[in-house]
Each structure stands twice: as C-alpha cells, then as structure tokens.
Automatic annotation (TrEMBL), chains A, B, C:
Key enzyme of fatty acid beta-oxidation. Able to isomerize both 3-cis (3Z) and 3-trans (3E) double bonds into the 2-trans (2E) form in a range of enoyl-CoA species, with a preference for (3Z)-enoyl-CoAs over (3E)-enoyl-CoAs. The catalytic efficiency of this enzyme is not affected by the fatty acyl chain length. GO terms for biological process: fatty acid beta-oxidation. It comes from Ramphastos sulfuratus. The gene is Eci1. This is Enoyl-CoA delta isomerase 1, mitochondrial. One of its GO terms (molecular function) is delta(3)-delta(2)-enoyl-CoA isomerase activity.
Length: 294, 294, 294
C-alpha cells in the first residue's frame, strides 16, 4: 500500500521497528497464523481492497491478543503493494466491537497493564495513521474502544438500526477517555459535541450518531458492504500519493502528540487503573455484565 | 463538591490562595452576608443541586460588588460536599445579565480598572473551571459579559421568547472581546460562527442562538426550572470523578492560557480602557442608554 | 482603510516593505497602469466600498502577473482612507477564478517557481489579513486557488446555479494543498469536513457548498451585487477599529504560521513542483484541458 517515497504517516523509527515491537509484546509471527484466529482478512487483488472482519465472539472485545493480531494484520496490508484500502467490519451479529477488554485491566500486574496499553496505542497509531483508505462498516454497537476504531477510519457507514449505538462512554464506567481518544473525537464532531458527549459518556443510537456527525451515513444492513465498496471506489479514484500526504497533513498534529507523550500516557494509565477505587468499579461493572447474561 | 483527590480544574495555588484573593479585591467575609445581597443562593441538600438567582435590578450588571459576591458564592458551593451542581438563573424579569457594568470602566483610576478586570477573570476561571455541573437557565437577554457567564456553563437552556437575545456584542460598543471570551465562544460554536458573530457584535434572538449552537435548547418560560432540574439529574447520574476529569481535559488548555497571561491581560485592558477615544465611546453609549430610559 | 494606530493584521515589516516586495517580484509601478489590465477596480467614495472585478479571460487564472496586480490593487485600497470594504467578483462569465496558473508551475526554473509561490503567499496574506471588510461575490466556478481567494474573505455569497462549483481540489491533480490553504479551510468548515473534502479533492456544487458552510449564502445571479452591497453595509455599520482588532484576534494564529514558515514553504513548493513525476502529472493535466477545448 505504500508507494515508493511515501512514508507512513507516523514516522517514528524505534516505535515502528522490529525491536520496539518485540519489547511491546507484539511478535512478528507469520501473518497467516493470526489471520484465521480473531480477525478474518480477505484481500481482493483486483480492486486492491481488503476486508477485515472481527470474529472474536461474543463481543469482539479488544484483548491483548486481538490487538496484537489487528496490528500485525494492518502492518501486513500496509506493506502489501496490492492493497490500497481496507474495510473494517464485524463478523459477529449486533456488535461491531465492545471496546477494550476489561479483563485485561482487572487484577493484573503493572507490567501487564503497560503491555496492554502500549498495544492499544499501537492499534490507534496504525489505524489513524494508515496510508490506506480505511472505511468502518459498522454493523452493530460500538462503545468505547470499539468507537475509537471507527473514529480512526477515513469514513464511517453504520447500519441504520436504532438499537445499535456508538460512543465514547468511558465516563459511565467511572474512567476517563485518554486525550488521544478525545483528540480523534474532537477532529470529527467538534469541541462542543465532544465535550458534552464525553462528560455524559453518551452512547448515541445510529440516527443520533449520524445527526451529530459521529458517523457519515446510515444504510440498511443488507446494503452495508455494497455501499462500503462504492465509497471505497470513490476514495481510490484519487492518486494515492496526494491523498496520503493530505491525510497526513490533517492528522499529524494529533498523532505526534501521542508519539511525544507515549511513555507518560502508559504511566498514567497503569497508575490510574491500579487504584483500588478503579479496580472496585471495574469489578462491579463485570459483575453487572455477568448478571445481565443470566 | 470536590471529591477527595480531585483537584479543582484550575490548579494555580497562588491565584486561588487567600493572599492572592485579598490582593485582587475579593475579601473572605462570611458568605451569608453576601448571599442575600445581589445573588440569592439556595442549596437543596437532598438533590445536591444549588440555584443561584441574580437579583441585582435593573439589569444584573456585573459590577465589582456583584462579581465579588458571585465568586465567593461559587467558592462556597465548590467547597461544600453537599453540593454537586448549580443552576444559574435570573430573578429579574426579561434579563439574565446585561454584562460588565460600564460604570466600572468609565472615569475611574487605573487601579480600579485593574481590580475590576481581575474580578472578571476570576469569575470566568471559577465558572468555566468549576468541578460542579453548571447549567445556565437563561430567562432573559444576555449580552456581552452576561453571555460569557452562560457560555462558561456546561449546558445552556434558554426561554424560547424571540425578544430575548444573547451574544458577545462588544464590537457594537467599539470594544473588543478578550481572547478568553473568544476561546470560550469558539469551543462552543466553532471558529467560523464565532468569527462572524464577534466581528458583527451580533445579538442572536433565542431561536437563532439555538440554531447556531450558542444555546443547547429552548423551552417555554414556565418549563425552564423544571427542565433545568431534569438536565441536571442527567448530568449528576455520572460519577463525579470521571466527569470532572473529562471536563478538565476539555477545558484546561483554554483556562491555562488565561492563567499564563493573566497580568498581561489586565495590563492590556487597563491601557485600552483608559484611552480617550474608548472613554468617549463609553460616555456616548451611557448617554444613549439614559435617553432610552426616558 | 487603515485608521491611525491600527496596524495591518499581518505585521511583518520586511515582507511588507518596499525592498522585500521588489525582491519578491512585485514592483511598485503606479497602480492605474495595472488597474485596467487584469483586474477592474472601482471605488465608490460615498459608500467607502470598492469593487474588484477579475477580467483575465478565459478563466481568471492566477498567473504571476495577475497576482502582482491583485496585491498592488489591494495595497492601494488598504492605504486609501476613503475605502473601508471591497467586494471581489468576476467579470468573466461562469468562472470566478480557475486558481493558480498551471503554466507558471510547468517547465520553468526553480527561481521562477519561488517567485511565483511568494506571490501566491503574498496574495493570501493580504486578503486573509486585510483590515477592510472583504466580501466574495462568487459568480462562477472557483476551484483550488480560486476557492482560496473566496475562503480568505470575510463573507461569501455564491450564485445559486448548481453548475458552479467550488473547492480545494488539488488532490485530484496529484498535488497537495499547502498547510495555510488547509488552515483557512478548517477555520471555515471545521476539521472533519475539511479532511474529507481535501482528501477527495471535492468540487462542491453551489447548494452543497452552502450546506457545508463553505459559502455563507446563495442568491440568484441577478441579485448578487445588490446582496453583496447589503451585506457590506451591515459589516460597515460596525466601528472599524473594534472590527479590525476582532478579525485580527481570530486570524492572527493562522497568518503568523505562514509568516514564520514562509521561506521553508517556498522551498517545499519548489522542490515538490520540480519533481519529474509532478511535472508529468501537470503536463498530462494540461493536455487533457487542451483536448477538452476542442
């Protein structure tokens, strides 16, 4: 996907290098081994468009394993000349992604929290900074980190079902969205909508999400993939080089901000999540989720 | 209102300390003495919601005395564990607040201008940086500094009467809104609406104010307090700690900018307002207001 | 147009001085010689409003000569006490301006590219930083640099003909809009609309341009000049001094950014445009335009 001479949007040699990746818990095992695990990746070489389908039931939660596979799959596509765009969607009914896996944030070691958070950062840096055209085909609910995945794409199409909702609802759980979640959100919906939505931890039903600009369009479920392909074709009609440089110009400030404060952000996360009060909140939340199931 | 471990949004020890406050003209007299003077404060301990009613006829103008009482009342609520939110409204028919008291800016000493301006800054730092949920229930017109008070809250509900208008109309008087008035405005309506509205010194009738996003919703006058209570309950449903940290994340950059340039901003104001041409403009404006009354 | 004591919005003594202008290729020949060449300038001294009509058929492209004349005409009006506002419109049917003249960017010397780019920058600094009220009366299509001229004004009125389109479509040509084109655009339509529109190189038909906020209003062609005059009267009702300072407060950050990086921006442009691949793209584009004509 990278034309010669076009650097990835996030130039940061150590973080993107093999050594840094190893130390961050991402190993470079062959891609095929991962591809049929939690994410199904199909590349149509004739159109240059890949589809990534999240298939990690029950709710496509972003565990450390999922994030690792996601990053490796993205990197593989990014480096594949035959691939110019990727559609991200879900293979699980009614859910796009439920967001960060709470079990990774509860009752673990500080080292584990740090490793997990680095993988969350890595995922965002790769999606938001991708040189490929990225389209989120949102076929289910998408709270918190699931919403972040969608926000980091170039374009968002959501199934018009009002039972599906999307938003950065961290405040509802007693936690705070990191500044780079916020920056990504503000870039899309503006400061005022973001301020209110983040403080209230709002989950916006699809029609409201469309009205506020959180998603770009709504379609009936049976039209979703067809529409994603049509939008992709429209974006791929542009010369890659000019489009990539333009995207970088729009996003670099926000990407650079995390890159500059990455270790500090990991430190903040591990300190915050290790607090007794926060661990207690998470335990209560998990218990509530368990009861809901029964 | 401040949970243990949650710092006020504006951490700036000297400026918030007793000494700084004394030198800025705000004395720490007992609150009760002020509460029944220019602002009526009622705290409902069962809901944790206070109501501040401006009752400084004829137009609730923001005089030095008014601002002093306003800041002390806010500080008292901020430090009261029983209080989590405040509704700001007017007890004077047809006017929310007419804004800064022009008599404080005309024919006085440089020292007086400086003291007055510091009090205006202090008021904004306290409202925009409050840890409490702040809702403006705008039951009358609200030009200039009156608009700033509303803009600094978390949510704005305005009576739908098109005779009531709101806006930063400083340019109409030949003066310029300070950068932090502008920053607050841009955070709500975006750069373009702010640029046009500030250059034209627009006063937006309630329906237009709603359309541009300057206020969040319109209600009939008799429903105003009921609706404010309902919105407050919605905001108070969130855990204070997460909501406060989120609010701080959204507002800190703009708050810090004034804190960093506070003395310079006072200097700019006193120099500007002392100019013969500006003093003349204000005199003509006051004479026009007097004639209007007769 | 400049009241005593009011500095032009862009204070940068060397760049605005006579010497700097000479070295940038702009000579200070008497204005009248230019005024009847590519731009028709009429000043109505009773209203204080000038009209600039682009009359450089076939498409009012922004050549070095055109830009030089444009800057000198603007400077003359800026320094004329009798002039407080300017309406910018086209004298050529169906086109406002086609943008930068591609022939200035193809097959020329590095020195020529640098001289040309400095003139483009100078034009933007003068229009976006003007102390006058500037209204674009857009009576035809306005791609790329033509769009930039309109975006740099205080207000945009466009003929409601859906055959007329406007946008920063650089990406379509394989090139990238400079950061200050982008900054100007973001200030008007916000980050999200700008990101999408710039990446797709969108040319928005008039109704869509209005809906996205790229233009402020649409009128029938026969009402355009009348409406421009009415809007101008509304803006001129404000005291010049307060309006100018407010405009400066809103625009200075973006203006200062180019001023601080001006030479670097010229260097980037000349390097980019000199690339063989870009020269090839431009040649193909020019050949396509030629074929279209026949």
């Amino acid at each position: 996907a990278v034309s010669p001479g076009v650097l990835p949007l996030c130039r940061q040699p150590p973080a993107w290098g093999r050594a840094a990746r190893r130390s961050s818990g991402l190993s470079l095992a062959p891609c095929r081994a991962f591809s049929n695990n939690k994410i199904l990746v199909e590349l149509d070489e004739s159109s240059g468009v890949a589809t990534m389908k999240f298939k990690s039931p029950p709710v496509n939660s972003l565990s450390l394993d999922f994030l690792t596979e996601f990053c490796i799959s993205l990197e593989k596509l990014e480096n594949d000349r035959a691939c110019r765009g990727v559609v991200i969607t879900s293979n699980v009914p009614n859910i796009f992604s439920s967001g960060l896996d709470i079990t990774e944030m509860y009752g673990k070691s500080t080292e584990h929290y740090a490793e997990f958070w680095r993988a969350v950062q890595e995922m965002w840096l790769r999606v938001y900074g991708s040189n490929m055209v990225t389209i989120a085909a949102i076929n289910g609910s998408s709270p918190a980190g699931g919403c972040l995945v969608a926000l980091s794409c170039d374009y968002r199409i959501m199934v018009e079902n009002p039972k599906f909702s999307i938003g950065l609802n961290e405040a509802q759980l007693g936690i705070v969205a990191p500044f780079w979640f916020k920056d990504t959100f503000v870039n899309i919906v503006g400061h005022r909508v973001a301020e209110r939505s983040l403080q209230l931890g709002s989950l916006h039903p699809a029609p409201e999400a469309h009205k506020t600009g959180l998603v770009d369009e709504l379609v009936p479920e049976e039209k979703l993939q067809e529409r994603a392909a049509a939008v992709m074709a429209q974006w791929l009609a542009l010369p890659d080089h000019a489009r990539q440089l333009t995207k970088s110009m729009m996003r670099r400030a926000v990407l650079d901000r995390l890159v500059a404060h990455r270790e500090e952000d990991i430190q903040n996360f591990t300190t915050f999540i290790s607090k007794e009060s926060i661990q207690k909140s998470l335990r209560m939340y998990m218990e509530m989720l368990k009861k809901k199931k029964h």
